[in-house]
Amino acid sequence: MSLVSIVRFVFGSRSVISRERSDALSDPLLYEDPESALSTTQRLSGATNFPQEQEEQIKEKTQEALPDYAPRRWDPRIVSDAIIGLSDGLTVPFALSAGLSALGNTQVVIFGGLAELIAGAISMGLGGYLAARSEAEFYEATLSRTRLLVLNSPCEASSLIRSLFAPYRLQPSVLDAIVSSLAISPHLLVDFLMRFHHENPKPAYGRAYISAITIAAGYFFGGILPLLPYFFVDINDVGRAFWWSVAVMIVALFTFGYAKTCLVEGWKGTSNMTKGVRGAIQMVGVGGVAASAAMFLVKAFN
């Protein structure tokens, strides 16, 4: 939880650090030592000057060392649902098709794989829908309890606000001003407690349906890949289709593992690339273990 975001929530979007230097020193919000406030204000306002060549070197090293903090256009919840669907879709149907290929008939692999793929996509989608609905119901229940708390126990609500700011050791006058500003509007106080005390933001509209569609689509499109080679070979040419399926899935698992890791860590820099390759190898290993176990069991029971 960021103290700056809390202060902006209470006092508006105006940045605390954007105040004049003299105001920051005469009425420090976060610092008891004026010299500390001065040095931090100088760093944040760019008061420290470097030679042009040294400044360019610092920028280059910073861009290499730090992860990619470019603004994300994708909703993180949608990305999370897509990763869940794709990760299961790229491993479970692949393991099933690899196991069924031991029976020596491509039609068995296709029909069994499609049946599992459709049933699995529906099941995964319903699971995502129910999970999102439970999240929305939990939010509504927490919101009702918070409203009753603010209405019936304002002193307890004020204590919760003070407990949130306790780790930051704010001056009593500043803390009293924050509590008073929130107490003026019960609606604002409820919103504040939901966001910073319960850490339970309001779910997006249509979240349950979006989650269900995203997970189901990810599972289906990820699971259809290992079945594609079986559509283009003879009914008894299972061995060739199997090895084509293995090649397709190695590429798909490696690409998915790399993209999944870099989506979180960042795309630029040697460190992020190394993490991406490591995640890709782990993804290929998981898929290989699952496929090998399925083939072994089918051959054992056959």
Explain this structure:
The chain is mostly helical. 75% of the residues lie in helices and 0% in strands. Helix 5 packs parallel to helix 11 (207-224) and helix 7 (106-152) crosses helix 10. The model is unreliable at 13-48 and 66-71 (pLDDT under 50).
Q: How would the global form be characterised?
A: elongated
Calculate the mean pLDDT score and round it. Answer: 76
Q: Which structural class should the secondary elements be placed in? A: mainly alpha
Q: How many distinct helices?
A: 13
Separation of the first and last Cα atoms: 57 Å
Percent range for β-strand residues: under 5%
Helix content: over 70%
Largest sheet, if any? Answer: none
In terms of per-residue confidence, which ranges show pLDDT below 50 for 5 or more consecutive residues?
13-48, 66-71
Taken in chain order, the helices and strands follow as: HHHHHHHHHHHHH
- Indicate the radius of gyration in whole angstroms: 28 Å
Q: Quick one: how many beta strands? A: 0
Outline of the structure:
The chain is mainly alpha-helical and 302 residues long.
Comma- or semicolon-separated keywords:
302 residues; mainly alpha; elongated
Question: What is the topology?
Answer:
Layout: H1 3-11, H2 21-26, H3 34-45, H4 52-65, H5 76-89, H6 92-100, H7 106-152, H8 154-165, H9 172-184, H10 186-197, H11 207-224, H12 238-265, H13 270-301
Helix pairs in contact: 5-11, 6-7, 6-13, 7-8, 7-10, 7-11, 8-10, 12-13
